[in-house]
Design goal:
By secondary structure, the chain is α+β, with helices and mostly antiparallel strands. It has one domain. Helices cover 33% and strands 31% of the residues. It is built from three helices and seven strands; from the N terminus they run αβββαβαβββ. It has a seven-stranded antiparallel β-sheet with strand order 4-3-2-1-7-6-5. It starts with a helix and ends with a strand.
Length: 176
């Protein structure tokens, strides 16, 4: 009985330490990525573009390109990359569009919000990376150390469950 109790205590302590190490790793990875963001913004004069990708379980897929110049969103482009499962009567101008400065945010479909990377990192820290007992958190930095995936999935959710962002690409925006 004493051995069983010792084993249970050992497993509980080990699990606690392991979860703390995981939390610390995630925090360190986020902190490092945030430092990489600061360096990236300096090297690009805070002018860049990034592509957010999304898809549903039925195959519908889209991309939103956000262009930032000197720290300000100046353009948002949206297009469906796979229209399987989309109604046939969708107007062509809703399948692909571009918003410029004064019109940014005027389309309200599934396009990514017109956010700067600073705003995305803030949202990541304040919303997406918060430890939840009922969810699995995802954080990846496959864009040269910058966020590529950040968000969470509620345990037991079946379809289109990811809450967060998938950034396919981030690159400097060269002014014309």
């Amino acid at each position: 009985m004493k051995n069983r109790f010792s084993l249970i205590v050992l497993l509980l302590v080990g699990g606690f330490i392991s979860s703390c190490e995981s939390d610390n790793t995630d925090r360190n990875e986020f902190k490092n990525s945030n430092m990489t963001l600061s360096e990236f913004k300096k090297s690009t004069n805070n002018s860049y573009k990034y592509i957010v990708s999304g898809m549903t379980w039925i195959g519908l897929a889209w991309e939103t390109t956000i262009i930032i110049s000197n720290g300000k969103v100046i353009e948002r482009q949206f297009k469906y990359t796979n229209t399987s499962g989309l109604k046939n009567n969708i107007p062509k101008e809703e399948l692909e569009w571009t918003e410029n400065e004064s019109k940014i945010g005027s389309h309200t479909n599934i396009a990514a919000a017109p956010l700067t990377l600073d705003e995305i990192y803030n949202k990541a820290e304040q919303e997406w990376l918060i430890k939840r007992d009922n969810a699995e958190i995802y954080f990846e930095t496959e864009n040269n150390g910058l966020i590529s995936t950040c968000g969470y999935v509620i345990n037991g959710c079946q379809d289109d469950c990811f809450i967060g962002i998938h950034i396919k690409n981030i690159e400097p925006f060269l002014q014309k």
